[in-house]
Amino acid sequence: MIRLALSEEIDILMSIYHYAQDQMIRNGNPDQWGHTNPTKEMILEDIEKSRSYVITDDTGVVHGIFVLLTGEEPTYRIIEDGEWLNNELYVTIHRIASDGQMHGIFEKALAFAEGSGCDVRIDTHKDNLIMQKLIERNGFKRCGIIYLMNGSPRIAYQKVIRQNKDNRNQHA
Description:
5 helices; alpha+beta; seven-stranded mixed beta sheet; Aminopeptidase
């Protein structure tokens, strides 16, 4: 089940992010989040703005978290070494993390994002090889390089949703 995150879950959410940080560091990606990102303040701001979602099991235990940004992502305005697949409306998945206890967290978040009917964009660090494979395996196309507000480069991806729906409708 996917629902909005609650501020009273902050300790659970922080522990999930700490687990994800440790996993990234162990897998050769120490610079994307380190042990400092996302901050508690960032997580609480995401919750306050109703853009932070949790993924729970059937008993309500939280196993994953992600941010779904609707509308323009400012850091996506400029893309280098490529281009976006189109200029259609999109949602962006950010800060996705799992506690390692439930499989398919990325796929569940992606299905939720696709439910918006908009294209989906995502980015990741060059050293996050696991996420790159996961993104590409789920139908995203690599579009180029974007830069975060702090200047750090990220590989940017897009998955076109409308075209897929149009193609299905043509074959129905």
